[in-house]
Amino acid sequence: MSSQWIMSFEKLMTETEVKTLRAVLEAAAIVAKSKARQGPVRDQCIIELALGTGLRVSEIGDLKLADIDLKRGGNSLIVRHGKGDKARVVKFSSKLKNLITEYIEYRTKDSEYLFPSERQDYMSSNGLQKVFKKWAKKAGLPARYSIHSCRHYYATALLQVSKNLRLVQMQCGHQNPQTTTVYAQVLDEEINEAVEKL
């Protein structure tokens, strides 16, 4: 019998922390563009993609340009090699669509992958993790967070807005619905904490 994975506040970035991280990335991307530098522009897109889709780190690395629908009215991507090797379609916001479009137009390396690497075709999970850690540190976030924290944030925020566990399960690619319910438990903790403050 397997034990259920437990989600806790320690694994979840707060709204304030996410806003701070986004502000640091946005400022760095503006400066980078003024100096024709690539790194911070790419890094902003990586982290915004993680925050705005809840993709697993390996799914971010595997993304190809052909997997992303940016046509008029399009704002989705196909995860071809998700957990269990099952493909799924993930929707994202028009704001993220604009950011991805700008990044693709700005980048200088021609590659079929969204985030090409200097050493190989695409960025490794380790490389993507380093990108997150670098900017999380600059934003003053606790060292316990990893790029997977973006996935936790996304799932919890999506559940909070939609109140729909099935929708969160589909977007995140959870094979087992029980995995999705851990995010509902975090929201219950949040409600309990808020009620105590009344």
Describe the main β-sheet briefly. Answer: 3 strands, antiparallel
Helix content range of the residues, please?
55-70%
Contiguous runs where pLDDT drops below 50 for at least 5 residues: 1-5
Computed over alpha carbons, the radius of gyration is 17 Å
Distance between the termini: 40 Å
Mean pLDDT: 85
N to C succession of SSEs: HHHEEEHHHHH
What does the overall shape look like?
globular
Beta-strand residue fraction: 5-15%
Which strands sit side by side, in order, in the main sheet? 1-2-3
Q: Which oligomeric form is depicted?
A: single chain
What is the count of β-strands? 3
Structural class: mainly alpha
- Figure out the total of helices: 8
Describe the structure.
- The protein has 198 residues and is mainly α.
- 56% of the residues lie in helices and 5% in strands.
- A 3-stranded antiparallel beta sheet has the order 1-2-3.
- Helix 2 runs antiparallel to helix 4 and helix 2 crosses helix 6.
- The protein is globular.
- The N and C termini lie far apart (40 Å).
- The N terminus is likely disordered.
From the structure above, extract its key features.
single chain; 198 residues; mainly alpha; 3-stranded antiparallel β-sheet; 3 strands; disordered N terminus
Quick recap:
The protein has helices spanning 15-34, 39-53, 57-62, 94-106, 125-138, 148-162, 165-172, 177-196, and strands spanning 68-69, 76-79, 88-91. It is mainly alpha-helical. Helix 6 (148-162) crosses helix 8.
